[in-house]
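Quick one:
INPUT:
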């Protein structure tokens, strides 16, 4: 009797998966669509796998191709192009037209064939969308690396003449020399992308070296300029992109305070064919840090924009403020970023460590080059006696909860006084994402 029951139970266990598979495959449209959109909200690659489960799901769920730029839901936000190091820039012959992308939330890798890097240079990325410079005509282009969708924007070379009209030397340069100068000009560019209801793609470029913003819509013949900052000291931080806007720290000479400002995308006409307003900076909230005392950074951390820097001149105590808290009047640094860690270099990068994919780095921490005036080494000089000097800065992590420093990388590959070294651990590679020279 027991044997018979066991056999029946075993058969039910064997039959259940097939029946379950049939019920999932025939899932009703009213249930399937919300599930598909929820999967997409997590990760575009998961959505692609979702559509591949069966022919029914593939036919019902919206196809990503053709919507990778015009529909922000299909932007691969968690993904970033992975700097290979060792001189293997995107488009290097040894890579065979492939580049790798890193998921900043899970640590997953994906290898994508993008042969267009033979004729393109990567300038930056925003929400996983790549900002590219095409070599032969200097056109700025947007690329969704997972759907292949591309938007063409005006050539960037005229921006050199527009921002520096008094400099006539560009007219006498060779084509290759112009491209080199242009790439250097765009090296610290940031980009914000917005899509109108009519599907028009507008891009704002934060040209921090010239204290202005260039903007254009896909299909325009040229870029327009808006000079946002009156004098060079006005801009206190690198411009960053967040939710289709540009954010920066700016100095107001009227009250001699620093403010977090945002720049809205220019407004299009109802037809979406021409601009009806220029992007201008608007003050949001006063900065609690003194930007003239230390470097201040803005960074996207999950769904938040945060402000980070040091609260002391000895660079011992980094702090993080949530912009949403400052707007509400809560002027107190946060000590809990949950599973996030912020890497600070030439720019900021926030990663999620909920899956513990980067063991050498702790969550709720700031990773940066750390050199305190307290860090000294002593040695005996036979002529002058005891001498002390600052120890070179090291890449360390600061725990926001305990207020303590600990090693993050086993060797500093970012020395200003030696030849640039290549990364050789995953933590090194992630940190190089903060330095455009490694791209």
């Amino acid at each position: 009797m027991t044997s018979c029951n066991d056999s029946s139970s075993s058969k039910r266990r064997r039959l259940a998966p097939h029946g379950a598979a049939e019920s999932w495959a025939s899932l009703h449209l009213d249930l399937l669509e919300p599930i598909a959109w929820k999967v997409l909200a997590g990760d575009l690659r998961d959505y692609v796998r979702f559509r591949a489960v069966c022919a029914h799901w593939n036919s019902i769920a919206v196809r990503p191709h053709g919507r990778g730029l015009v529909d922000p839901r299909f932007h691969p936000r968690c993904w970033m192009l992975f700097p290979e190091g060792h001189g293997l820039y995107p488009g290097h012959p040894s890579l065979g037209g492939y580049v790798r992308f890193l998921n900043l939330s899970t640590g997953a890798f994906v290898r994508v064939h993008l042969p267009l890097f033979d004729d393109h240079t990567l300038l930056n990325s925003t929400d996983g969308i790549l900002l590219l410079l095409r070599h032969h005509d200097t056109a700025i282009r947007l690329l969704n690396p997972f759907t292949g969708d591309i938007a063409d924007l005006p050539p960037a070379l005229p921006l050199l003449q527009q921002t520096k009209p008094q400099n006539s030397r560009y007219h006498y340069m060779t084509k290759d020399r112009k491209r080199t100068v242009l790439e250097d000009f765009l090296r610290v560019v940031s980009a914000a992308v917005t899509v109108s209801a009519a599907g028009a793609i507008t891009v704002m470029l934060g040209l921090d070296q010239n204290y202005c913003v260039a903007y254009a819509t896909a299909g325009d013949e040229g870029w327009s300029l808006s000079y946002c900052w009156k004098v060079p000291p006005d801009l206190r931080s690198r411009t960053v992109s967040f939710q289709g806007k540009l954010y920066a720290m700016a100095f107001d000479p009227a009250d001699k305070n620093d403010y977090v400002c945002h720049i809205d995308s220019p407004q299009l006409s109802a037809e979406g064919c021409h601009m009806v307003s220029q992007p201008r900076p608007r003050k949001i909230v006063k900065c609690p840090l003194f930007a003239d005392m230390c470097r201040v950074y803005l960074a996207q951390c999950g769904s938040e924009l945060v402000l980070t820097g040091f609260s002391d001149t000895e660079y011992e105590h980094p702090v993080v403020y949530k912009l949403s808290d400052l707007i509400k009047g809560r002027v107190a640094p946060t000590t809990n970023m949950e599973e996030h860690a912020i890497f600070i270099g030439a720019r900021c990068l926030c990663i999620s460590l909920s899956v513990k994919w980067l063991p050498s780095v702790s969550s709720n921490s700031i990773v940066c080059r750390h050199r305190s005036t307290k860090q000294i080494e002593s040695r005996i000089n036979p002529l002058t006696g005891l001498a002390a000097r600052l120890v070179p800065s090291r890449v360390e992590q600061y725990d926001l909860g305990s207020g303590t420093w600990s090693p993050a990388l086993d060797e500093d590959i970012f020395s200003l006084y030696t030849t640039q070294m290549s990364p050789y651990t995953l933590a090194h590679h992630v940190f190089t994402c903060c330095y455009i020279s490694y791209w």
